[in-house]
What we know:
By secondary structure, chain A is mainly β.
Amino acid sequence: xxxxxxxxxxxxxxxxxxxxxxxxxxxxxxxxxxxxxxxxxxxxxxxxxxxxxxxxxxxxxxxxxxxxxxxxxxxxxxxxxxxxxxxxxxxxxxxxxxxxxxxxxxxxxxxxx
Amino acid sequence: xxxxxxxxxxxxxxxxxxxxxxxxxxxxxxxxxxxxxxxxxxxxxxxxxxxxxxxxxxxxxxxxxxxxxxxxxxxxxxxxxxxxxxxxxxxxxxxxxxxxxxxxxxxxxxxx
Lengths: 113, 112
């Protein structure tokens, strides 16, 4: 069964360092989402791509976060510099198109010390 | 902005019991309502999706209902099993923006 792949699964970093997360969606899925889930809360959307274009990044803290999906397939989310408050689970999801079921990866758990 | 609330935050039941999880949302102009399951330290698994024109969806022992006018959805789990232990999240998708607004989840423990 096809899955959304994310790496790394866990990342520990010190504040002010740069971190990057990678996501490979299910093959053929045009829409890709990055969510942030703080412990004990529901996920919140950071950025949504349709193919290689950003559809919604209104909740992305653009002073330190960036995301790209250059060829419309896999995607990278970067944080530079990391802050203590960035400690969270970062989830990637994909769907064949918008308005459809989203399939989630296992996530990357980030701890900023 | 859509606000999604889930009550209770945590629930423990003995194996075999039927149970109901509640979800409420402030903006009734939704495109769909979805229920997800999340195991500790893992991603989300979609359980049921109810379109705004539908009243309920069923999958096995799960039944989800939607009442848009009152801003409520319920997830009914029949004959609960220890393997059902997880956090259950509901999420609404708006008619404008197509991103999901999640509740904070209900952590379910089914005691053998």
